[in-house]
Amino acid sequence: MKISSNSKSKFLVYGIILIFSLFITVFSYNKFMHIVYPVKYQDIVSESCERYGVEPELVYAIIKSESNFDESAKSAAGAYGLMQITADTFKWLQIYTGDSNLSIQDLLNPQININYGTMLISMLKNKYFSEEVALCAYNAGMSTVDKWLKDEKYTENGEELSFVPYKETRDYALKVSETKFIYKNLYFRNTKVEIH
User: Which residues, including other chains, have CB under 8 Å from residue 74's CB and lie 6 or more apart?
Assistant: First the structure.
């Protein structure tokens, strides 16, 4: 059976339309993802990540999950700014920096908030065996996570959590991990962070 030249032309046109449609769909999706998952405060994030040896995609995932890039965010639990740091955590971190002249309101400054938030996640990653546990501690606090790690109901080895008892913390760790994966694939596929 022979295909007429008219039919070949139609197939060619349909093929071109299909390829163009797929290109537009992929381009639109990619553009949409860049809008939904932005990379704001790039200089601050980059500098803080380099200083503390943290992957930028993790910092962006925390910012996206905690405040959705609202630098003036304040939670009912008393957490402030982009990375939602509480007053008690801020005071504790100031012991390491010597910035005792800073107030809780200074956490609304993106430079200060991102610097302290990145420092905190770096300390938690160094303290705990896994990033998931570090994220749980970021959300629920170190003392809570330390109790879980001593309880055989929640851990088999004292280093990883087989079950996270707080639903909010469980959901938080999963959300940040998924968001980190998205940021990694959108912006940081070929980036390696030097751990100090």
Answer: 80
Angle 28-31-36 (CA atoms, 0-180°, nearest 5)?
120
pTM: 0.84
Q: Which residue has the tokens 């995932």?
A: 61
Q: Which residues contact 165 (CB under 8 A, 6 or more apart)?
A: 148, 153, 154
The model's pLDDT over 113-132, given as tens digits with 9 standing for 90+, comes to: 999 999 999 999 999 989 99
Backbone angles phi, psi at 164, to 5 degrees: -100, 115
pLDDT one-digit tens code per residue, 5-27: 566 666 666 667 767 565 656 56
Task: Give the C-alpha separation, 113 to 51, whole Å.
Answer: 14
Q: What tokens were used for 98? A: 């010597």
Closest residue by Cα to residue 69 from 99, 53, 45: 45
Residue where the block lists tokens 């909010």: 168
| N- to C-terminal Cα separation, the chain | 70
Determine the residue type at 124: L
Residue with tokens 């990540």: 49
Cα gap 144→97, rounded to integer Å? 24
86, 58 Cβ separation under 8 angstroms = no
**Among 103, 162, 106, 166, which Cα is nearest to 139's?**
166
Give the number of other Cβ atoms within 10 Å of residue 98's Cβ.
7
